[in-house]
Design a protein that fits this description.
It is a single chain. This protein is of the alpha+beta class and about 350 residues long. It has two domains: about 110 residues, 2-Layer Sandwich (Phosphorylase Kinase, domain 1), CATH 3.30.200.20; about 230 residues, Aminoglycoside phosphotransferase (APH), C-terminal lobe (Aminoglycoside 3'-phosphotransferase, Chain: A, domain 2), CATH 3.90.1200.10. Helix content is about 45%, strand content about 15%. The strands form three sheets. A five-stranded antiparallel beta sheet has the order 1-2-3-5-4. A hairpin with a 5-residue loop joins strand 8 and strand 9. Helix 5 packs parallel to helix 12 and helix 9 packs antiparallel against helix 10. The relative contact order is 0.14. The chain binds adenosine-5'-diphosphate, 2-acetamido-2-deoxy-1-O-phosphono-alpha-D-glucopyranose and magnesium ion (MG). 2-acetamido-2-deoxy-1-O-phosphono-alpha-D-glucopyranose (GN1) binds next to loops. 2-acetamido-2-deoxy-1-O-phosphono-alpha-D-glucopyranose binds next to loops.
Length: about 350
């Protein structure tokens, strides 16, 4: 089905004009679509949910409805509420998605206009805003009962499981790539125990459960092009109970790296300690609920979430690039190497990161 035919099944008034793919994310297929409506041109985001990643798309959409309605209720007096939270557009059958002939699940959100998702932060002020936006997100959801949410990807940040997946990919080695990644595997295996600290701390009840986003990479946050402030967190597919350190860690991983996530020139990869500290300052100014155990692991969360991504990218490289969208051969290996270079940089600067 074309985007145009799919969009007819959603409750969008007006006439379809055009659609264009957005390739910023690694998981879903995203299209920006425009319509002519009585008030003028209006844009929407049409997304196909990745079924290899999300086995129960209905549960993903139920979670997203619950979370966005919860946030919107709290923002009801805010004149900018429409730009500060995603809003699910129902299908003509009243569902939060449409299923195509091949069983593909599609959803639509209004496009948040005059907003920008960055791959890199310009300065520490933006880093502070990024951190505080995630703190506000945790606060907004702190009153929602986590039991009402489904676990959309079970054991998503379970490092022990991620290492077992890496070992399974090493055993299968379907593309014969294992021989070329001995150094990377050695590096990650040496750090296996350290990597499990967040998941195990959560399982043992040392780290409290919150409703967390679980994918707080920088380009999952929209900044207002006019004010420069953060508007809202998008990509809510993995919102579920977790430790807030999953979110602080992924912010630090994606926004303190001086290079892109897939940079091939590893000389360019470093951890910007100014941005790192600013993210944590912004986060802690909002997240006043943090316990001592959480606080003591804030800086470490950046290293651990970088490690989990190194393990996941390397596993996908060995498995034959089945999970993340790739744009070039070896893309997942480049990503894994870049994460490893960032871990090295963070480890070298550890005392500075702890502030
Ligand atoms: P993925 O799961 O593949 O990462 P995302 O939901 O993050 O998909 O969307 C991919 C990109 O599409 C985002 O990085 C952002 O640039 C853009 N995008 C998604 N939703 C919106 C929206 N409601 N308004 C504006 N841009 C959006
Ligand atoms: C994926 O969907 P996207 O591109 O925002 C992945 C995250 C990784 C990230 C690495 C559901 O995020 O876990 O951290 O790639 N999302 C899922 O860039 O696996
Ligand atoms: Mg995304």
């Amino acid at each position: 089905m074309t985007p145009e035919t799919l969009l007819e099944k959603f409750t969008i008034p007006g006439t379809f004009l055009a659609s264009k793919a957005n390739t910023q994310g690694h998981i879903n297929s995203t299209f920006v679509c425009s319509f002519l409506e009585s008030g003028g041109r209006k844009r929407y985001i049409l997304q196909k949910i990745n079924r290899l990643v999300f086995h129960h798309p209905e549960e993903v959409m139920e979670n997203i409805l619950l979370v966005t309605n919860w946030i919107r209720r709290q923002l009801k007096d805010d004149p900018e509420a429409d730009r500060k939270s995603l809003c699910v557009i129902p299908s003509r059958e009243g569902k939060p998605y449409v299923v195509d002939e091949e069983g593909g699940y599609w959803r639509v959100y209004p496009f948040i206009e005059r907003s920008k998702a960055y791959e890199k932060l310009a300065d520490a002020r933006k880093a502070y805003q990024f951190g505080s936006a995630v703190g506000r997100f945790h606060n907004l959801l702190s009153t929602l009962d986590g039991h009402r949410l489904s676990e959309t990807i079970p054991h998503f940040h379970d490092m022990g499981m991620r290492y077992r997946q890496l070992e399974a990919a090493m055993r299968r080695d379907p593309k014969g790539r294992l021989a070329t990644v001995g150094d990377e595997i050695g590096f990650l295996m040496e750090r296996r125990r350290r990597g499990c600290v967040l998941w195990d701390g959560m399982e043992q009840g040392v780290l409290p459960l919150h409703i967390t986003h679980n994918d707080t990479k920088l380009d999952n946050v929209l900044f207002d092009e006019d004010s420069g402030e953060v508007l809202c967190l998008i990509d809510l597919d993995t919102v579920m109970p977790g430790t807030v350190l999953f979110d602080t860690g992924d912010m630090l991983r994606t926004a303190s790296n001086t290079a892109e996530e897939d940079e091939r020139d590893l000389e360019k990869v470093d951890c910007d300690t100014g941005l790192f500290q600013a993210i944590l300052a912004g986060y802690q100014d909002e997240a006043t609920f943090l316990t001592g155990s959480e606080r003591s692991l804030l800086a470490e969360s950046g290293i651990i979430m970088t490690q989990i991504m190194a393990v996941r990218f390397l596993s996908d490289y060995l498995a034959g690039d089945v999970y993340y969208h790739i744009d070039r051969p070896g893309h997942n290996l480049d990503r894994a190497r870049c994460q490893i270079a960032l871990i090295r940089a963070m480890e070298a600067k550890r005392s500075l990161l702890h502030g």
